[in-house]
Amino acid sequence: MNPRFTFPLSCIPTCALALAGLLLAPHAHARINVVTLPDRDSTQLTIYNSADLTLVKETRILTFRKGLNRLEFSWANTLIDPTSVEFRALTHADEVDVLDASFPPRVANTLEWGIKSEFAGEVKVEIRYFTSGISWAADYVAEASQTEKLMDLAGAVRVNNNSGEDYENAQVRLIVGVIRLVENIAQLAQQGRPGQPPPPPVTDMPMAPAPRMAAMRGMAEANFATAAKPKEIIKEGLSEYFMYTVEGRDTIPTGWAKRLPSFTAKEVPITSLYKYERERWGNAVMRYYKFTNSVPSKLGTEPLPDGAVKAFRFTTEDKLYAFVGRTSVKYIPINEAVELELGHDQEILVKPVLMNWAKTDLQFDNNGNVKGWATKETWEIEVQNSKEIDVMLDIRRNFPGDWTLVTDAKYEKVDATKVKFLLPLKSREKLKLTYELTTRHGSNVQK
Amino acid sequence: MKKLLLLSVAVLLVACSSLQARVKLVALPERARVVVSLNNPDATLVEEERIVTLQKGVNKVDFSWRGVNIDATSIQARMLSHPDNVTILNTSYPPNENALIWEISSPVAQEERVRISYLITGFGRDVVYKAVSEPDETALTLRNYLRLRNNSGEDLTEAEIGIGYGASFKKTIAHEEVLEVLSERIETLPIKKVLTWDAATLPWDPEYQKATVGIPLSYVIKNDKASKLGTHTLLPGKVRIFIKTKEQADKEGDKPGEGVAFTGEDWGTLTPVDRELKLYIGQSRDVKVTQRQTKKDRTNIRRNNNGNQDVVWDTDDVYKIEIENFKKTAIDLVIVEHLPGYWKMVESTHKFEKKDAFTIEYKLTLPAESTGDKKTVVTFNVNRLNVQGNEPANY
């Protein structure tokens, strides 16, 4: 029998598991091979988006003999980190013990476990390891109604498998969060067997600092029960990461990418928001869809991972699209308000005009030179909404120095040098915003 | 089969779970509808509808393309016939192929109209305006063309093309084809012809110039209902303006023919509704503007205590503008003056409009043949206050 088995769909040699029965020699130099070729019973992928790291958990049914069993695990042409491979019995756990793990000489990408079993018969086991080469990213499609009051938001996740391994019928779990790795998984995978250890760690932990382990434990839940780490850290770790479990199972052969629908939220209330701030965008008006990741907004059940967004607007009764724009969103916690920046817009006009400028309140020093003065500026901001729909416009003006603003318009002071005018604009509405800005200079400055 | 258009939809009933086999059962449903949306100036969205015959269960629909500049991440499918019970389970992207496979579940065997949308690059669009003015330059016929340049790799057959306003139109535009479509035609659109003399850019005294000073000539179109416009923002584009001419009759006694002469062109800017589009199309040399500063005094001078430096002062300035119109018709002229800093108008012979803090405009109508004693003279006296020599001239 072939010591390696490949999955039915794969043409690439992949992880192989072979059970060699009754090996008495402590070292497996004899390379006695397969007794059984167990299929994967189940596979679970936990994929991180902040690092090139995926935790693979697979279960298989193995038939053990009483006494010493030797189990060979090999993974040619994959990107598995050999230092990460772990074995555990799920059934008869108290009767099955791993005595040792050996990376045989002159054989790449292979490890052998010496397993002592008190039980003869089928045992469900779990094998867990890290691989690189699998990544995931979230993406979203926003479909705004014609009035841009509501949108349907569909989230998807796209998993790319370039790991060299096919994972069939895998449960896919995705981790959102930033983890720390002290060694690169792809590099570890290249070595084929454990190499030079990393710089001496503070504790005798084999490789990873606390945050990462905490995350792993959080993900793998009870599977890590044997790890000698206090639970509080697990909770802490969990609190900083979020896990997305894709419903059902999927097959993603190596080289392939797969996009899976993640959620659909219908009729999420949005604000069609436009922004003008000359210091940021020149004379362009920027377009946004603003919404909140909250339950009243038909969302709010999960944080939304960062990802690319494409926004469309329905233009006809039969829901033909107009392409509004594309952007990327940051990670959105629950109840956070989000503004999708969708590019320049030509149909909202904002034109500030300085209508009057005066220099007054001159003060002179002992030498008769001007030491203080004030400038008084009258500004008119022409605003025009050429759209068929009502919108909200956010105009920001920056006023350096010691200033006083006089206006009938409602405004909000954003900070010491910035004010915001928030204007709801009806379809086709035109208006003029006027304000008078006095700025004190030189010795006239009072604050 | 078109040369470059290789979008194909193949439907397979999932018999085995193998994705890698990539066996394509090529049933190529024809496009039932193609819609091109040019609403977004930076992107071209194509939506096409195809009737796909689905089997009961999970179907694989294969969508692939070659030589077409499709943004693969933008491809989406929407079910039109049974959106509630026909669903896309997932999308797979095979390695090294311009293709994707949708797994679509259907509760029964049925035909489904699927709308596939995607963004393409290489599809250029220009707005081009052509106008023919009446001989008296009071109105023109404006034709607005959409010039489409298809370098997307895709032949768009019988495509409904929309530009975000007005009705969309149905055209076929092949790959590498440039297609110009008349999108709007407005007859007898009233225009204003106006000359603009800007004190900041034109010489003040033509006597000192070797060549006759040409004064910029513009046509002003207002994007409003009165001008038979005002339904949408006018998009930027080149405007070519012609004027109707009488042509010599072929034979003596025949009626003279009608022709046109080219009078100039300009780039039209984005013009929202109710705003003016000013097209600078040439120069007039039959109007002569001479500006002189006839008073240039400094008053209220304050020196520092050493007496060696003027710290702050006012000015008292008088400007005189003499304008002669040698034409046999009256003409509108705008005089643009720039007044930096803090100023107050003391006196002006004519009404002016303050455009911003540092700019005023006189809007004049020059009578026909107003030369010599009949010339137009504008005089204004302006005081500038608290001058320190560092006054702002713009903002």
Which range does the strand content of chain B fall in? Answer: over 45%
**Sequence stretches where pLDDT stays below 50 over 5 or more residues of chain A:** 1-14, 21-35, 203-239
Helix/strand order of chain B, N-terminal first: EEEEEEEEEEEEEEEEEEEEEEEEE
Percent helix of chain B, as a range, is under 10%
Average of per-residue pLDDT values of chain B: 89
- What class do helices, strands and sheet pairing of chain B give? mainly beta
Number of helices of chain A: 4
Termini separation of chain B: 60 Å
How much strand of chain A? over 45%
Widest sheet of chain B: strand order? 5-8-3-2-11-12
Mean pLDDT over all positions of chain A: 81
Low-confidence stretches of chain B: 1-6, 13-21
| Secondary-structure element order of chain A, N to C | EEEEEEEEEEEHHHEEEHEEEEEEEEEEE
Number of E-type strands of chain A: 25
What general outline of chain A do the C-alpha atoms trace? Answer: elongated
Oligomer: heterodimer
Helix percentage range of chain A: under 10%
Name the biggest interface.
A-B, 56 and 59 residues
The structure class of chain A reads mainly beta
- Arrangement of strands in the largest sheet of chain A: 5-8-3-2-11-12
